[in-house]
Amino acid sequence: MPPSSPHAPAAGAPPAVSTARVLAGLCLLVPVLVMLWVPSYNRLAPGLGGMPFFYWYQLLWVPVSALFTGTAYLLVRRDEALRRAAAPAGPGPQDGGRA
Amino acid sequence: MRHVDWTAMAVFLLFFALVTVMGFLASRWRRAADAAHLHEWGLGGRSFGTWVTWFLLGGDLYTAYTFVAVPAAVYAVGAAGFFAVPYTVIAYPLVFLFLPRLWSVSRVHGYVTPADFVRGRYGSRVLSVAVALTGILATMPYIALQLVGIQAVLDTLGVGGSGNWFLQDLPLFVAFGVLAAYTYSAGLRAPALIAFVKDALVYVVIVVAVVYVPLRLGGYGSVFAAAARKFAAPGPNGGPGGSLLLGAPGQWTYATLAFGSALALFMYPHTVTGVLASGSRNTVRRNMAILPAYSLVLGLLALLGFLAIAAGVGAGVPGFNSQLAVPQLFAQMFPSWFTGVAFAAIGIGALVPAAIMSIAAANLFTRNVYREFLKPDATPAEETRVAKLASLLVKVGALAFVLRMDKQAAINFQLLGGLWILQTAVALVAGLFTRWFHRWALLAGWAAGMVYGTWTAWGISSPATRHFGGNSAEVPGLGESGYIGLTAFVLNLLVAVVLTLVLRALRAPEGADETSRADYSAEAGDEAVERAPQPAAAH
């Protein structure tokens, strides 16, 4: 899930649930689910350079998850810039962020 | 008589002297405009950029104890000890969602601690002090464990451990005396600067270790074959000695431990301190993408446990302390001078987080106990003075903990610390997104989680200890074994939800919320941030 909309939607601003936010959310969700699905990697074969699958697979997911998080960052940054450009100057609604 | 490796000792002392000088010079680095404010001493002026934050958080999260304990666990039990890797993979995507919001609201309102935020959001002094005391309680044994890390290195170097108690612990006194002095004078700037040295040393040592040592041991194939042979034999207590893969019941424990620990990681006061010290919201986000570089190092480090098995470290030694596996592996495989470098990495790796933890605990005490209950009209200069003294007190407390109580107690309390700190997550994380939860319901949920978790952990014995012998127990209603901290967290959340519904129906007073929706997305350079109160004189 992407963070909820900080600003009230203004003309030209992306909707609260924008494509960029959904994609960023997915980028963050994938590594978490992959690591929590333990049965999928709890095995020895195939090995890599003598290292059982269990170990090299999890190690591989460290840089891969960083790529996913990096992509989420770029998406969110662009999305936030669009929102800022569209939002009128001055503070947002002062409603205390109640949901 | 024990043999002292003088070459290794000299290299170790050289690096130690270097970081000591850096620690004292750090107060001149990025010198503060107004050094009297707590955010200068306690948050380095909230000015750190992407790379400084990366080194600081890396130095903060990946502690000496981690370097000793993670491979020790792999050495002792195999696959189950590897959970540190999925744990750190999960942590960054998870906290990417809420840490930027915490940074923004803290920047706008001048919050120095997580408990400051809870106070401002819910208008509840009791909830705030509960969060603060949980933080201090969880941090103290963590600092103590850093000392255990240094002790493991000193033991292997051949100093300490013999003669009277004073001589035995003298090196530890010296190390902590120095640490306390420069933390006192330079605040968060000292560990931030020293972290550069620490992290550089750690990277060099680990890369060399995972390439050079397997070469000498005949490659990873024979390393894992040796591990499989060791685990096939019955363990020292007659039970199974470990395994290269997880057993069927172990998989739930593995996943829940990884998830619960990931959620707990950024609830710790010292990690929040590192995050709040960064100069912008996007600095925080960028770091979530580049901090996994340290996780890779941690993963490789975990493999050192297997290397130690293959190298025959501790083989045939009855009651071998697995915490010594990695230091002994280094001493056995490396030339003396490089052993010195490796030990310096561990030793300095203890000083950086210990400094940040003591600063974080001091900030909590000053802001959420001293100023909240003892002296509400404290000036910023007074706050800084109290925080400096508190940081000394915290370190003396940790030292006493290590000297008076056994190491097992420190390890037990650190396990509990993770469980406890996780119970602050509902109030903190939910509060960053919604004001729906009622403050009294959050307090009740926190209490339920703390009591359930502590009570369940108390009932677990292990060969090493009668109580607090492990971190997993059967999850009620599920029939699987899971991380106690996460079960307690779910209970905490359920209690908070149910009681919120009840309290709302009863129209119980909700308390004032001083934050506004826009505060949670403010970025450096925004008008709201420019207008922000001087942090130490907030609200």
TrEMBL record, chain A:
Membrane-spanning parts: 22-41, 53-76
Top-level taxon of the source organism: Bacteria
Keywords, comma-separated and alphabetical: Membrane, Transmembrane, Transmembrane helix
Keyword Transmembrane: yes
Protein's name in the database: DUF3311 domain-containing protein
Organism, as annotated: Kitasatospora phosalacinea
TrEMBL record, chain B:
A GO MF label: transmembrane transporter activity
Classification via PANTHER family: MONOCARBOXYLIC ACID PERMEASE (PTHR48086:SF8), SODIUM/PROLINE SYMPORTER-RELATED (PTHR48086)
Residue numbers spanned by region Disordered: 516-539
Membrane-spanning segments: 6-27, 48-68, 74-99, 126-145, 165-184, 196-215, 252-277, 289-317, 337-365, 386-405, 411-433, 440-461, 481-503
Organism ancestry: Bacteria, Bacillati, Actinomycetota, Actinomycetes, Kitasatosporales
Organism of derivation: Kitasatospora phosalacinea
Pfam families from the UniProt entry: SSF (PF00474)
Alphabetical UniProt keywords: Membrane, Transmembrane, Transmembrane helix, Transport
Domain of life the protein comes from: Bacteria
Gene Ontology CC terms, in alphabetical order: plasma membrane
Predominant place of localization: membrane
Family according to the record: Belongs to the sodium:solute symporter (SSF) (TC 2.A.21) family.
Membrane topology: Multi-pass membrane protein
Protein name: Permease
Subcellular location(s) per record: Membrane
